[in-house]
Design brief:
The structure is a single chain. By secondary structure, this protein is α+β, with helices and mostly antiparallel strands. It folds into 2 domains: 2-55; 66-202, Alpha-Beta Plaits (2-Layer Sandwich), CATH 3.30.70.270. The protein is 61% helix and 14% strand. The protein contains 7 helices and 4 strands, in the order H-H-H-E-H-H-E-E-H-E-H. The chain has helices at residues 2-22, 24-55, 66-83, 97-104, 106-123, 147-164, 187-202, and strands at residues 87-95, 129-134, 137-142, 172-180. Strand 2 and strand 3 form a beta hairpin. Helix 4 runs antiparallel to helix 5 (106-123) and helix 5 runs antiparallel to helix 6 (147-164). The longest helix has 32 residues, at 24-55.
């Protein structure tokens, strides 16, 4: 936006100089130059907006990325804290994904990640944000959600991933959740609690729960 402002200022300065030095007729001739400056300013603003949106998206899946999650969580912490409300963070970690890459290649692995991304987006509510943190780790930010909603949503997400990877031997998902403010007051604390719950779930051999947050 600084570049755009400089362009606009330069155009205005040229317009003023033309009027002072050459009179009203020169100002009329300078109008197209001012219009061109405004057009350049608009194009720069559009480009900067597009670049910002790209910086908040995961290139492979199109989901929000870690940077977007951090910004959104800061916003939700402030909003929910102000209104004394709860929101949930759900961590999802794919199990056995390395075997897919080793057996079928990275191109196939990328396609699996895209399929999972689509399945997660289909499983969440409109207000929820699905995030790819990197590698085989995903996260869902669920506003206006307490423990009961987090539990149901986590189960739905786990089923969605299971269906997406159906037929890929050895692949499954571990999930865990955390709720603001009971489990933490910062994004770092909430993600740590959710991640730990997912780790506990990963230690299971079969499907039963080991804690209220693990799945």
């Amino acid at each position: 936006m600084k570049t755009a402002a400089c362009v606009a200022a330069a155009a205005a300065a040229l317009l003023a100089l033309a009027g002072a030095a050459l009179g009203p007729g020169a100002v009329l001739l300078a109008v197209p130059a001012a219009f061109a400056g405004a057009l350049v300013q608009r194009r720069i603003a559009v480009r900067e907006g597009a670049l910002r949106r790209l910086s908040l998206r995961d290139a492979l899946t199109g989901l929000a990325n870690r940077r977007a999650l951090e910004e959104r969580m800061d916003y939700e912490i402030a909003r929910h804290g102000r209104h004394r409300r709860r929101f949930a963070v759900i961590a999802l970690d794919l199990d056995g994904f390395k075997l897919v890459n080793d057996r079928f290649g990275h191109a196939a692995g990328d396609e699996v990640l895209r399929e999972i991304a689509g399945a997660l987006e289909d499983a969440v509510r409109e207000q929820d944000t699905v995030v790819r943190l990197g590698g085989d780790e995903f996260c869902v930010l669920a506003p206006e959600s307490g423990a009961d909603v987090a539990e149901r949503l986590m189960d739905r997400l786990s089923v969605a991933v299971a269906e997406a990877v159906d037929g890929l031997e050895g692949m499954s998902v571990s999930a865990g959740w955390a709720v603001f403010p009971e489990d933490g007051l910062t994004a770092e604390d909430l993600l740590a609690v959710a991640d730990q719950a997912a780790i506990e779930a990963k230690r299971r051999v079969h499907g039963g729960r080991t804690s209220r947050r693990a799945a």
